[in-house]
Each structure stands twice: as C-alpha cells, then as structure tokens.
Predict the structure.
Amino acid sequence: MHKVIYDTDPGVDDAMALVFQALHPDIALLGVTSVFGNSTIETTTRNARYLVERFAPGVPVAQGAAAPLRRSAPAPIDWIHGRDGLGNTGLLPTGQSGLDTRPAHRFIVDTVRAHPGEVTLLAVGPLTNLALALDEDPEIARLVKQVVVMGGAFGTGGVNGNVSPAAEANMAGDPDAADIVFGAAWPVAIVGLDVTENTVMTTDYLAKLRDEAGEAGQFVWDVSRDYEAFHHSSVGLGGIFVHDSSAVAYLLAPQLYTTRSGPVRVLTDGIAAGHTLQKPDGFAAPAPEWDGRPSCEVCVRVDSAQMLALYARTLVGKA
Ligand code: BDR
Ligand code: CA
C-alpha cells in the first residue's frame, strides 16, 4: 500500500491523475495539497476540493502556495486547462469537504512525521510546497519514503520544454523550489516531459473509458474535451499527452520506466530558467555544481502501452 500526499495544481491532467489514485487499490491518499500553477491558488484549491469530494471523499485538502519562492505567480494557462482549470466543465464543489486549517507545507510536515518512512510525496505542479516544507522542517527529508515528480525535461527525443524551448511548466513555475527539492536528501524520481509525451491517450482510448469506466470514465472524457482540442490545434495530436498520471504510474509500476541515476540541477535565472540538467552517475568529468548532491532517478523511457493499460484497468475497477 502506498501512502500518498498528492501535491497538485488541478488542472485537467492533474484531475485525471487524482481519479487514477483514488481508484487504485494500492494507493491510500493521506491528503491533497494544492499549489498555484495551471491556475491561481484559489482555482486549483477549489478544483482539488471538488475532485476530493467526488472521487476521494474524506481525504483532507490543504491549500498551498499562491506564488513561487522568489518571483510572482505565472498567469493561469486557461487556453490549455480552461478558465475554470477543469476544461471549462464549470464543475464546482458543493462545500461538503472542508479545508484543512493548515497550510500545505505544514500539512506535509505533520503527515510525514505521523508516518515516518512511509509517505510518498507525489508532486505534479510547481514544487513550492515541498520546498517550504523542507525549509520548515529539514529533517523530513529523511522521513519521507520517496518523492515522485512530474516535471522537467531531459532532452530525450529532443524535448527540453513546453513553456519555453528550455523549460517545462512545473519547473518554470518555481525553478528555485525545484532546485531545492532535487538537492534534498530524500529519494527522488522524476518523470519529465520528454517521457510523458511518449504516452498518448487517443480519442478512441478516451471514448472507450467513457463507455466502459462508469462515472470516472465519463468524467475523464468530459474534462478532457477542450484539453484534447488544445493538443490537436497545437501539435496535431488526436488525443492528449499523459503528464501527471505518468507520475502515478511510476509509483505503481516503476518497472514500466527505464531510469538514469544522477544529481539534477535546475537553472534558476536567465533565458533558460527552469531548465533541468542531470549529471549521470559515472560521468567522468568533475562538475562541482552537481557533485555532492544526491542522485535522482530520471525516467528516460516508458512502456507506454502498459502504462495506458494500467490506467484503463484501474478506471474499470480491474486493477
Ligand atoms: C505539466 O504542466 C501542467 O500544465 C500539467 O498539469 C503538468 O503537470 C506538464 O508540463
Ligand atoms: Ca499539474
């Protein structure tokens, strides 16, 4: 059983990843923490509450950072995730799930301390909440089981970014936080954009979920209509890239991913701010900016057919 805190900026693909976790029998959601990113913190928190109310009732939601550590919040990317951050579906919480009174980083610290060595932080937005938790209580690095991140891009297939030629959205959202999180003494695995773009849910795949996976399948279909239109108009795809759910799949089935080990730095300034760079273990030349930092597991390949099968199995209740 994986005890998970889901740190998220819902977001269409964040929502699809929440449904995946909520329905998988091997995941126990201890909490959902919101962060700015795809939309404002008010919108991502409202969406987190909506998703929890509907798919994971009783799971606490704690509101997180409204802005990065040392810059202003990015504008919502509503042409991708919708004006409501949920694909213009207009879904709203009915107000039954109260908000935890603690800020997200305090919720993370308390929950990790309550379950030493057991908690996975599954982070699919800017990493501000995790950096703030480390700042408040650096010891948690040794108490967390693992951190699984969707973010960054490591150049396989020539993919280095989506919000700029050099940066992926979650890293660009708070490069300082990301560099802190990748440098802490906890086990980190990263599924970057260059790998998540190798898994595509086609229109036919999503339609099958709609028809066979009950309420969850219908929700995934509804929430992804405008997101799919965005993928079609921007990159000519007949479907959607599978970003945040890839981090969930890594947690559940790491054997589907090939990884490369080595410390990771995130550029924090200049035209390539948010760019992620790994020094692979065994790289011969000294690199003082990397050396001495812990190795992270960076995904470089995925068995996308099996990843898609795992998601579908979970939604139809056969995982
Ligand atoms: C990442 O950025 C966000 O827009 C998505 O939710 C995902 O976490 C992809 O670059
Ligand atoms: Ca996200």
